[in-house]
Records
---
Amino acid sequence: MREYETYKCNKCGNIVEVQSVGGGELHCCGEAMQMVETYPKSCV
Ligand SMILES: [Zn+2]
């Protein structure tokens, strides 16, 4: 099972962190959110 993915809405800028990925799609503003990161970075 995947863990810790980050999704971003390109319309409004919402960012959602998913701790446990169940396989469903995340939606915001009527569109699917885009995955921007698959693992938390120790330093940015
Ligand atoms: Zn949105």
---
Amino acid sequence: MSRAGVQDSGLPPSLGGLPASYGAASGIRDWGLGKLHVGGLINTGRGNDGATHHRCSMLPPCIARSGSGWYRGNIVRIYLDYNATAPVPAEVADAVSTALRECPGNASSIHAFGQRAKALLDDARSAVARLIGGEPSEIVFTAGGTEADNLAVRGVAESQKDGARSAVITTAIEHEAVLNAVRLLGRRGWPVSLLPVGASGVVAADALARAFDAGGDSAPALVSVMLVNNELGTVQPVKAMAALSRARGVPFHTDAVQAVGRIPVNVRDLGVDLLSIAGHKFGAPKGVGALWVRRGLVLQPQSIGGRQERGRRAGTENVPAIEGLGVAAERAARRMSSEAPRQAALRDRLEQGILAKVPGTAVNGDPGARVPNTTNISFEGVEGESMVIALDLDGIAVSTGSACSSGTLEPSHVLRAIGLAPARVESAVRFSLGEGTTDAEIDRVLDVVPAVVARLRARGRGRG
Ligand SMILES: Cc1ncc(COP(=O)(O)O)c(C=O)c1O
């Protein structure tokens, strides 16, 4: 196989067949343990343009799905990092590829090509709206969760009349997409209030009531509380908090990036005003998402230009990616009721197995208030980053926290915010499962993890 002027990887085509999107991420990181290539071998070759190309042979056929597992050559690779991103299922990849090849028009054009593109957008808009119980006209397509969060937080705050700058309330465990948007508002004069979160990883609804009381008569501009925390998987009492907000007439945004597609989410039932979605967490391509905006809510667009998305987000829509988002939304709606209990059973077996087999382990966050696919476990005496590297060498992909913060070696702001001791924060590892996770994979992880922990602890003792 030869693509895009890059030399053939030379690996057997029998393991091929993955959509190109699987090859998107690769990188070399220097962890001080020598160079580790995350995700595959590197090929160097001369392309058609005569230039030397370095390319990861992680592109098919290097890592391939075969039967119940992922393989590189004959090494099993187990992906337990679905909260960072989920693989794109063949059904979605096919839909994206068909749209790319067969739908060249701009959805704003009035000719037949444009109308065809618009029809794809309309279908996808309806599918996303159905998944969350909203109206198609309330969906604003974005380039992912971060953009949706920015549009919600900044868009609502900046739409205040006469340049008013009333308080913005959020929690200390939000994703950086919300936290940094709120911090920016803080620097520009909006008073900011961060609700504290206890060891359970679940914010108490009455913390919001207290924040409202502390503000006296002045109504805040916005409350933003995530539905599911990305590191702990804990579900926040959004419905109760949105009700408190509504009683005060304060717009309420929820970042539901880690919830949509995994657990039932209904915007009317939650009573929120804005809700963020990221497609790549449930099988759509990376770089596409949506913001649901309750009809009638005024929002200051953050991207200025044409009238796309009813004037709420300028720029030509990414039709193939949005088509993928629509198909992924339909697929999630079909599969959720069987996938959620299946993943919960696997997650619980993984968690109980680790707690039983590895002394000095503890689960972070309230195990009773979580999405089905996530567990966050601290391993006493072991650095989380070392665990991630050691497990990767054994073919198991996990993470220390959110994909954006892991890689910075900054201790997790979420685990610090819930009051964990520094040693427990630094030894935390997140396992997040998905629809590809199998029983056999959990068996293998339960074999590997105790040995890896013992090795790392022995090395730590050796260093004294
Ligand atoms: C809770 C949460 N919000 C927002 C984002 C950002 O989404 P995206 O990666 O699509 O920009 C993430 C990504 O991990 C997330 O977990």
